[in-house]
Amino acid sequence: MDQRGLTATYAQSRARFLEAAADAGAVVVSSEHPSRGLANETLAIDVAVVGPDDAPAVLLIVSGTHGVEGYTGSALQYHWLANRLDERPDDVRVVLLHAFNPYGFSWVRRVNEDNVDLNRNFIDWSDAPPPNEEYGGIAHLLVPDAWDLDTQQSTTMALLAYAEEVGFERLQEIVSGGQYTHPTGVFYGGTAPVWSHRWLDEHLAGLVGNAERVAVVDLHTGLGPWGHGELISHEGRGAAGYDRASAWWDDVRSMVDGESVSANLSGDWLGALDRLLPSIEVTAVALEFGTVDTVSVLQALRADTFLHASGDPLGSGSDAVRAQVRAAFADDDPAWFDVVVSRFDDVVSAASANLADR
Fold first, then answer.
1. How far apart are CA 330 and CA 9, in angstroms?
2. In this predicted model, what pLDDT tens digit does every residue of 125-142 receive, in sequence order?
3. Phi-psi category of 91—alpha, beta or left, where left has phi over 0 and alpha has psi -120 to 50?
4. What share of the chain is helix, strand, coil (3-state, %, to 5)?
């Protein structure tokens, strides 16, 4: 098994993470997922904790919110355990949450076992989901009834024509901002809290403990220039969390204010932290690493969604679709990982220093 860079499977990533956590003397707690993986393996959210229980500050680093993006996130978490453990300030507890969406990680999907985008599932379910009427008008183009070459070409051309009509940024918002009406579509937010959502509701307070302040770095891939790590805030300029993040890391982009490579999202889990940790100072960012161009990413997601909507995710052509998805979200080029690691180290170092500097 490679000890640097991305592994080939979820099971390898998990084994490497758990081995490194044990070597680091971390306290590890695992919660088994009810589904099975692509190779019929056990799935789980694994949490490794390093540092004192009574630490006034906690740094939470999360991988695999979007399943397949966990290949990079897991490699970075392993890197921290293997190479940066000694840099942890004495009064900061580091919590590594591995594979927030283990099903998507194993099946090489962005979504979970319910075709739900976990980062669109954290809306207030006591109210009606936010509407996205425009999505319904192009749903048949995004995930058509067939996926032959002619259909792919015709629907792609129709989507590009629609982008010219409404503008690319508006199309991105319609497609990726979240929708709650097409369960076999892309960026679907579900009908209720999914398993990983319920897990976080139950466990997050315990992970944080009695800390007075918490920093969260949620690791993502798939948007932006190759290798670039953009720090994305779910808050707008002038909000306390945004201002702290900007002071810590300087170049932070607000998705609310339209500054980010990400559209403004409905139901992202970082946006739920004020509800989950109401009495704690929280400074949270998503760290998004660019891979390939946006059209290639969308094509991979469309292929994957059609594959699973058609009812046979292990059928003919499924290996090629998973390879396409992996290529869109997990760059196996060592040069890419070198750039990513450097950015990750800088972000974590700044978070640790600011948490400890009180």
1. 11
2. 999 999 999 999 999 999
3. alpha
4. 45, 20, 35
